[in-house]
Structure formats: structure tokens, C-alpha cells
């Protein structure tokens, strides 16, 4: 019997982590690995694109952790600029098209890893497909966007969507000296934060000179005679001049191929997978931005497009299809970003999410410092905790602050992961020395205050007798 | 019936946290609070003393979080420069001496909080009590040490003991342009780290220009005709000139009073307390550096002198004696410090400690960066994990690195607290964005490698058949 065949669709984090893990466990005699990538690049950091656009990262190559050549050296038949245009799950073949040569051919598989990532959400408005409208999902996208900026004719940039990517690209363009406006339907940027935290983000964005048009949507993208975008019209009737429009509305899982092939999707619209990253189609695995995950707090299926999950899920798929055993136990909604010198982070549920998940909760907000208050360089940090009524279980946390503030979210993420109560969190043996924290670390102060809130609520008369 | 009487011995973190919590729960009509402090200062950061000595903190007052006057405003009868010289647990009185006036008097109590802190370990060598030999436990100690340095006649400083405090004071003196030598019996500084990590600390100390005399003890302190220390003689026969000698050998719990009063000590030499911080003497509570705590991993009783525990324990004692309910659930040995620009931290058990506690374990060491590798300012970070054989339970972690490296120890401390296995740690939903971490956070990379080590060990032939 010949070698088994593994086909991977998608040459970035999830797909290539799976391929590498499988290769580690099965040599070329046992397993043939063919990987298809539509773009020119493999295994790169899409999250790093804004920093390459701004110039903070000088060389695009630095964003690439493993080139096609390196994958080939590792015994993977890596085919870039090759798009998979169909999957036949019954025949166990994929149909591939060479984007440069135009040749089409079938490739058989025993195991398939579906790792197509995500596509930017595109509002269904006139002009959305005009020249000058860019996504920033792939390194090819990023290269095109940067080439446009380097062309020197861009002066006005409008970013549609004030989420993480939207703000990161806004800052990058602002650093390049451009006139930047961000349009978003929410009242405050990064709508996954509660509005009280979002206000800090809004201030930071404005302070760096980026204009914010909030609580407003996009109605139309006006194009010039040459078909190039020239302005964005908002729902409220504003006209924002735009030589360049960036889609920062978040992403949708790239599931078109899977849907056509009959690989079942889940309620969230992502591909349904089990803990081992198996889809419901025989021999088909999936990982990364295109799949849905279990949110450990809400119990809901969610699609979270984030490189860290893509890497972990790809690893899990690769171990399993290589004959090992591994699981991906879900997500809790941890995220972090930096807006100028403002750091923000979140984990668990926001107030709105906790509400939707049916939790009753109390909140606590504290202001503290990242180092001992008297220590040079001590920076502001504000923490907000959300804790379940009665039990005191920590449900969510948000941090906003300056240098060294936001990474503390990981402690709270680990506490939430372990279903800790705020009462126990405040007892945690966290590190202390004046250059690193006040004697009560801000995390502990917040837990103490949340505990007091849980305690006070428990003592208050029950508003629902009976 | 009149107000109950609470007497507190010790006006720093533990004692005054207890007093403040009790005051919060019981007003002056219900509870009279008298607090005795031998020194001039209350509620200060002893950990901040080195930074005041170096000049990083300009004003000593900044180290004081609550002055005696503030405590008095809060309804606490705060008596500074007053030493408690005896406790009569049968009669429920303490004997106090006014250090300035000389007056002695008895003070009755219903509840007593014993929070006398620690005293520096003093090697029993000739000359140890000479003028010019300083501890750095109290703000009065710090003020005396700084006055000596400000006097301008000090040129050579010898620090006995290369632990946290020893190195912090060494750096402070070095910053002041002095000739500094650290003497320690261990092979590497901060002996609570494994030697492989300790080597990095040794290099950092030497690189800043501080001399290290390791694997050597102190035999004698030579004094001049005026009784002032002039040199330190080591066990190996070296003579180190010293205008100033600092005791950095760590501390002993200050339990002399308790021992005389018959308040039972535990096996570690600290005062024995239960989870609510009650001693075995009726009406006597204790908290802070003078008590012993349960180490949650070794199961042993240990004395850990650290402001963060003192504050938590004082809070617990104060809540309980104020009629509430709170517990202190123990420690896991978390510590952090900075040597020049080198950050080091630890939590859980070191290899030696794990061995002594009877664990069998594997270790994993990884080198990574604090931000995405391509991101400007990405700094080195090395993590070492210790995981139990077979189960994979995380037992200990050590970090050494540059800017933003060490505080990540808190994630591992939280994981250890929750008895997580490295397999689950590597799945944690930790925050990721290029300015904050690589896509696999160093903590996750280390957990992945530790998991591999656990896995490899489990597959190896059992060396103890039968």
C-alpha cells in the first residue's frame, strides 16, 4: 500500500500548522502532503500588516515565518498561486486551478484540511467593489494596500469599521501623515468593549488626530469617472472624501467552497467541527478563521478570527490526523490591542454578552497603576470586572491603560478559564515588586472590589420574591 | 457593655490592614483600636526602600501610604515610637514602652493582632553588631542607611547575601557610584532560582559593575579603632574593604515576644495560624512576615516575608475579628525582581524544592520574545517550566528576560494555583497582538514544550519495574 495523501487548502497559520504537525508524526513514506495557497505567501502574520503599513516593521518578509520554499524543504508539496475551486467529498478529490498558468486538475486525498480563513465583511452598498477599496486579510491584500499608499497620490483615507483591525490601520495611515476618518455604527469604537471602556478608546483615537464618525453607517461609495473611489457617503448624509477606503468591519468565515461541497456549517455560519477539529464530512478536518468554536462561558458557537486560535486549531488537527490525540477546548473571547499609547484588552463576556447569555451579574471598576504608585514610570490602568451574582464567578474583564497595562488580561483569562470566583482571585499569589505592581496588584484590587459588589448584592433584599 | 478593645502590635502592612478592616466593620462605639509601632512610620512600602536609596524615588514620604495622622483620622489610636515588650495572654494585656519618654504601661485587649514583621538574619560572626552594619527591613533602617550614604564618606559597600533585597540594595549603591561587592554562599545569586536561571542573574549583576563573591560565606566583620566596620572577611580568606555592610541574607520572623508569651510557633519557626489567621492563643491573631503559611504545592508550612501576603493576611484577620468571614488560602512561592534591565520571576517549586517535596518531574526551557519577533522592541524572554511526570501538572515556573518579560509569571501562578496540567495550559485563550506577544505567547510555547517532555517521559521504558 502506498503513502496516504493529505491535502491542505490554505497556506497560512491553521493549514500549515496542521501540515507541519502531520509531517512531524508521519514521514514522506507514510504521508504525502499537498498544500494549496491562492496567494503568493505562506505562514505569515496577517496581524502584523498594519505595522508594516505604518513602517514600524520595515520589511514585509519579516511577517513571513515560513516561506513556500521552507515548507517544501520540510517535505510538503506547497503550491502557491493555486486556488481550490471545488471539493468532491464523495470522490475525495479537490479541483485546483493554477492562477498563473490557468491549468485545472484534480488532486485526490485521504485526509483534507480546510483552512481557508476569512474574508472581510463587505457592506452591500453601491461602489463597494470600486478600485481603491481594500481589505487587509491577506498579505497580498496588505501588499496591494501598501503599494497604493506608496504611490503617493493618497491623501484622504476612510476606514469603514472601528474594530481592532480598523483602528490599527487607521493609526498606520495616520503615522504616514494621511488624513484619516473612521466610520462605525457603534457609539464607541471596538464594539466588543462595554461603552464605558470604549470612551477611552474613542478619546485615544481622536487624540492621535484620527477623525471618528460614530453611530453612523456607510450608504454608498462614490466613484470617479475612472471607477476609482473618491468619497464615502454615510447613512446620515455626510460625504467623506476618500482616495482610499479600507474595510475594517470584521470578517466572515470563508466557507463558500465548503458550502458547495456539502460540508456542514454550524449555527454561527462557521464550519462545524468537533473538539478534534473534524468536520461532519468523512476525512475532512477544518481549522482557523473559517471554523466555529465553543465559547466556554456562553456555551454558544462563535467564529473568532484570530491567529492564536488558528495556530492552536491547526496543531490539533495535524496531531489527530497524524495519528495522535489532541483537542481544542474552546475560547473565552480574549483580545488585546494598542491605539497609540493606549492599551486595551478584554476576556470573557462583556456586559451585553453576559446579559445575552442569561447571566445575572455585578460589575466593579477600579483605577490603579501598573507599578507601585511612587515608582518612576507608573502608568494608569483601569480594570472592569463582571462577576456572577451570588456565586461570584468571574465572567468577564476589560482593561484600559498605558504601558504594561493590558497584558494583565491573561491572568484574568486564566482565572476565567478555571471558573474562579472573585473571592479566590483576590487571594491569588501574584508577583509583587515595586517596578512591577503596587503591593495589591490591580488585578487583585479589582477582584476585591468585585467581591464587595457580589457581597453587597447578596445582602440586598431579593427583588423577585416567591 | 462598653466597646470591645483591639490592640495591634506593628504599624505596617499586616497590622494596619487588620486595623483598617476591623474599623470598616465596627465603628468606634463598638470597637476601640490601639496600634503600637516601634518606629516612626506606619503603612509604608519596605520593598521600596532600595529605590529611595538609589534616588529613583525622590522622597521618602512617597513610600508611606498612610501616615500615623491618617490612621488617627480613621479612629485608630496610633502610638508610634512605642514598643510592646511583653504580652500576657492570660490577663489579655500587653506591656508597652514609650521609646522617647521611657514610660511603661499595660494596655488591655479583647482581640490582639500580632504583626511584628521580620528581622534580618544576622550571621553569628565577630563584628556583626558593629557600627556601619545595616538591615533594610524598616523605613527607620532605610533612613539610617541612606543618611550614612548621604554623609559622603562611604566608598566601599559589601552586601552579605545575594537574594532579592541584597541585589536591589547592591544596584541602588552602584547607581550612587559606589564600589559594591555581594557575598553569598550559593553558586548563583537569588538561590531560590535554579542555577541555570541564576547564571543569567549573575551575568546581569556583573555587567552593571557589581562584584560577586559566590560560594563563599562571611567569617568576620573587621572593625576599626572607632568600632566602625572597615572590612568583611570571607570564609575562604578574602578581605573585602567595607565602609558600609548591608545584611541581605533574608529575614527571620520576629517572634521573640510571641515565644515569651507562649503563643505557639509552627514547624517553620513562624507563628502558627489557621486559615482565618487565628493563633492558638485565645483572642490572638497574627499576620504578615511573622507567621507561617501553607505552601499549596509542597504542603509544608513556610515563612514568606512579602508585602503582598502581609496585606492579604492583615485584611483576612481584620475581617474575621470584625465579625466577618475570610480565609487566607496559602502561598505558592511567587516572586519577582529586576536587576538593572534584567527581569526575573518565579512561582511554584524550583527543581530542588520539587525534589524535596517528593515530586517526580520533567523540565522544559524555551527562548522566545516578549512581542512578535518582527515587532520593534521585542525583547528576549526565557521560560523554564517544571511539570509532574505522568500527570503533567504544572509545578513551577521561572522567567528571565528583558522588558515586559517577568510579569508573565502571574499567568503561570494562576495556572499552578488551579492545578492545571501543561496540556491544558497550552490551550489557554491568552491575548495576542503583535505589540504584546508572538502568536504563540511564550507561556504557551513553554507549556507545549513541557507537554512534549511529559509525553516523551511517559513513553520511555519505566526505570523501576515491579
UniProtKB/TrEMBL annotation, chains A, B:
The keyword Flavoprotein applies. Its cofactor is FAD. Residues 5-305 form the FAD/NAD(P)-binding domain. Residues 335-439 form the Pyridine nucleotide-disulphide oxidoreductase dimerisation domain. It comes from the Bacteria. InterPro entries: FAD-bd_OxRdtase, FAD/NAD-bd_sf, FAD/NAD-binding_dom, FAD/NAD-linked_Rdtase_dimer_sf, Pyr_nucl-diS_OxRdtase_dimer. Keywords: FAD, Flavoprotein, Oxidoreductase, Redox-active center. Belongs to the class-III pyridine nucleotide-disulfide oxidoreductase family. PANTHER family: NAD(P)H SULFUR OXIDOREDUCTASE (COA-DEPENDENT), PYRIDINE NUCLEOTIDE-DISULFIDE OXIDOREDUCTASE DOMAIN-CONTAINING. This is FAD-dependent oxidoreductase.
Amino acid at each position: 500500500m502506498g503513502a496516504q495523501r493529505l491535502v491542505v487548502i490554505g497556506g497560512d497559520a491553521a493549514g500549515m500548522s496542521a501540515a507541519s504537525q502531520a509531517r512531524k508524526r508521519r514521514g514522506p513514506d507514510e504521508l504525502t502532503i499537498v498544500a494549496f495557497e491562492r496567494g503568493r505567501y505562506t505562514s505569515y502574520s496577517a496581524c502584523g500588516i498594519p505595522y508594516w503599513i505604518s513602517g514600524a516593521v520595515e520589511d514585509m518578509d519579516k511577517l513571513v515565518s515560513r516561506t513556500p520554499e521552507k515548507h517544501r524543504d520540510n517535505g510538503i508539496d506547497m503550491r502557491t498561486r493555486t486556488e481550490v475551486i471545488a471539493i468532491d467529498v464523495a470522490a475525495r478529490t479537490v479541483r485546483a486551478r493554477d492562477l498563473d498558468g490557468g491549468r485545472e486538475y484534480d488532486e485526490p486525498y485521504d485526509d483534507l484540511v480546510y483552512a481557508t480563513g476569512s474574508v472581510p465583511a463587505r457592506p452591500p452598498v453601491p461602489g463597494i467593489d470600486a478600485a481603491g477599496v481594500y481589505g487587509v486579510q491577506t498579505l497580498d491584500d496588505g501588499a496591494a494596500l501598501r503599494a497604493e499608499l506608496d504611490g503617493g497620490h493618497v491623501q484622504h483615507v476612510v476606514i469603514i469599521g472601528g474594530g481592532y483591525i480598523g483602528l490599527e490601520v487607521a493609526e498606520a495611515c495616520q503615522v504616514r501623515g494621511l488624513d484619516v476618518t473612521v466610520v462605525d455604527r457603534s457609539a464607541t469604537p471596538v464594539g466588543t468593549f462595554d461603552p464605558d471602556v470604549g470612551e477611552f478608546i474613542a478619546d485615544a483615537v481622536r487624540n492621535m488626530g484620527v477623525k471618528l464618525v460614530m453611530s453612523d453607517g456607510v450608504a454608498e461609495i462614490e466613484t470617479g469617472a475612472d471607477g476609482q473611489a473618491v468619497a464615502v457617503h454615510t447613512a446620515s448624509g455626510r460625504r467623506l472624501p476618500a482616495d482610499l477606503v479600507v474595510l475594517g468591519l470584521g470578517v466572515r468565515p470563508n466557507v463558500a467552497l465548503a458550502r458547495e461541497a456539502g460540508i456542514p456549517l454550524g449555527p454561527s455560519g462557521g464550519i462545524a467541527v468537533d473538539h478534534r477539529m473534524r468536520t461532519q464530512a468523512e476525512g475532512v478536518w477544518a481549522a482557523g478563521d473559517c471554523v466555529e468554536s465553543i465559547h466556554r462561558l456562553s456555551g454558544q458557537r462563535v467564529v473568532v478570527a484570530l491567529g492564536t486560535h488558528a495556530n492552536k486549531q491547526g496543531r490539533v488537527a495535524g496531531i489527530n490526523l497524524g495519528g495522535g490525540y489532541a483537542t481544542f477546548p474552546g475560547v473565552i473571547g480574549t483580545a488585546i490591542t494598542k491605539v497609540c499609547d493606549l492599551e486595551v484588552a478584554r476576556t470573557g463576556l462583556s456586559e451585553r454578552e453576559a446579559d445575552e447569555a442569561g447571566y445575572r451579574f455585578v460589575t466593579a471598576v477600579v483605577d490603579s497603576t501598573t507599578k507601585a504608585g511612587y515608582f518612576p514610570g507608573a502608568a494608569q490602568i483601569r480594570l472592569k470586572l463582571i462577576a456572577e451574582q451570588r456565586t461570584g464567578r468571574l465572567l468577564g474583564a476589560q482593561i484600559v491603560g498605558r504601558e504594561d497595562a493590558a497584558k494583565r488580561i491573561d491572568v484574568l483569562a486564566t482565572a476565567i478559564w478555571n471558573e474562579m470566583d472573585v473571592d479566590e482571585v483576590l487571594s491569588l499569589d501574584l508577583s509583587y515588586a515595586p517596578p512591577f505592581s503596587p503591593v495589591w496588584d490591580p488585578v487583585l484590587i479589582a477582584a476585591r472590589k468585585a467581591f464587595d459588589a457580589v457581597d453587597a448584592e447578596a445582602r440586598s433584599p431579593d427583588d423577585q420574591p416567591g
